[in-house]
């Protein structure tokens, strides 16, 4: 009998600009590629290259000071042109000018199915592939020295305009299975894979779990909470199935190739569909003239509208884990008379303030405005109506704000990540930055407990 989880709480936000299942033209080649340690929560960098050094794709650029075997590797071959630093010599990024033809460092990955755990782990660490692994509790870069109780993978992307994994995995099923085989070597527990209804029916050696329902049904936190919740002093590792495709290709070829197919989405996108990119490049170089329709008053987001990162001077390059680019109106050129007081059919409202709720299949164009000021948290149950985990979100958030460790532990802090509260943040009438609160709480708790 298949494992099926049906989620009723949540929110399906139907936005304009879904990615059509077509392959778009390849992006332009970047003049340089860079890695930023800030993309990896908990990574303390020690740079091991300097300007003028030559590297191959797969050569280490930096390692974790506290875990030296954990490395970040170059996505291209070429010359290191800069090590960018900020205040107090903080490492911001390492920049590499690419060769015309990429040269790959070769790793011996033959016979993964017969390898011992230590060999598989060593390969992932040396190649930089382990940087895709995250752990709970604390939702940070996984510690390879702590063996996980279980490993959880999500292949069910339910966020607004999210890419369809069933399209991305076409023709690459063997690479996905190879990566899953490697995961089974890393834990004595189980490997759980959350999938959409009727998808990936041929998986072997893992626990396949169908998760049905509105977003956040596809988040790995929901999968964990409904299959094998985390207790204190337990550790689990989490990954996205799109990252497994990169890992599987590495295990198949022995080459560190970070290229991946992403979805180009959003109501303001000049074109929508799927495009193969090499992360590390600047957005404005790789996709010059292909993002927004207007070129102004637009918000470009790496990721989805709930959890994505705004593309600006501080985040100008694609991260290695990119899956989606979303372009929506900024909203800074909009001036409305009477605002919410007017009856409307084109505006979205979770609380049915507008008559548009009578058209459940309608697609909306939402801009980046918050539309309100920050107020006190109201105990109205609005979070609970979209939070499908066995946790009381309002009470957990209040304990995080007060930093009451005992209360945080009792209310499930070890199970959650900021993304689990993304829908709560969207529907919150108090306009409180819930994801930021959870992130700060997890970081402070990690410092306190370690």
TrEMBL record:
<dbReference type="GO" id="GO:0016655">
    <property type="term" value="F:oxidoreductase activity, acting on NAD(P)H, quinone or similar compound as acceptor"/>
</dbReference>
<protein>
    <recommendedName>
        <fullName>Na(+)-translocating NADH-quinone reductase subunit A</fullName>
        <ecNumber>7.2.1.1</ecNumber>
    </recommendedName>
</protein>
<feature type="domain" description="NqrA second alpha/beta">
    <location>
        <begin position="115"/>
        <end position="256"/>
    </location>
</feature>
<dbReference type="Pfam" id="PF05896">
    <property type="entry name" value="NQRA_N"/>
</dbReference>
<dbReference type="Pfam" id="PF24836">
    <property type="entry name" value="NQRA_2nd"/>
</dbReference>
<dbReference type="InterPro" id="IPR008703">
    <property type="entry name" value="NqrA"/>
</dbReference>
<keyword id="KW-0830">Ubiquinone</keyword>
<comment type="function">
    <text>NQR complex catalyzes the reduction of ubiquinone-1 to ubiquinol by two successive reactions, coupled with the transport of Na(+) ions from the cytoplasm to the periplasm. NqrA to NqrE are probably involved in the second step, the conversion of ubisemiquinone to ubiquinol.</text>
</comment>
<feature type="domain" description="Na(+)-translocating NADH-quinone reductase subunit A C-terminal">
    <location>
        <begin position="261"/>
        <end position="311"/>
    </location>
</feature>
<feature type="domain" description="NqrA N-terminal barrel-sandwich hybrid">
    <location>
        <begin position="5"/>
        <end position="98"/>
    </location>
</feature>
<dbReference type="InterPro" id="IPR022615">
    <property type="entry name" value="NqrA_C_domain"/>
</dbReference>
<keyword id="KW-0739">Sodium transport</keyword>
<dbReference type="InterPro" id="IPR056147">
    <property type="entry name" value="NQRA_N"/>
</dbReference>
<dbReference type="GO" id="GO:0006814">
    <property type="term" value="P:sodium ion transport"/>
</dbReference>
<dbReference type="InterPro" id="IPR056148">
    <property type="entry name" value="NQRA_2nd"/>
</dbReference>
<keyword id="KW-0915">Sodium</keyword>
<keyword id="KW-0813">Transport</keyword>
<keyword id="KW-0406">Ion transport</keyword>
<comment type="similarity">
    <text>Belongs to the NqrA family.</text>
</comment>
<dbReference type="Pfam" id="PF11973">
    <property type="entry name" value="NQRA_SLBB"/>
</dbReference>
<comment type="subunit">
    <text>Composed of six subunits; NqrA, NqrB, NqrC, NqrD, NqrE and NqrF.</text>
</comment>
<keyword id="KW-0520">NAD</keyword>
<keyword id="KW-1278">Translocase</keyword>
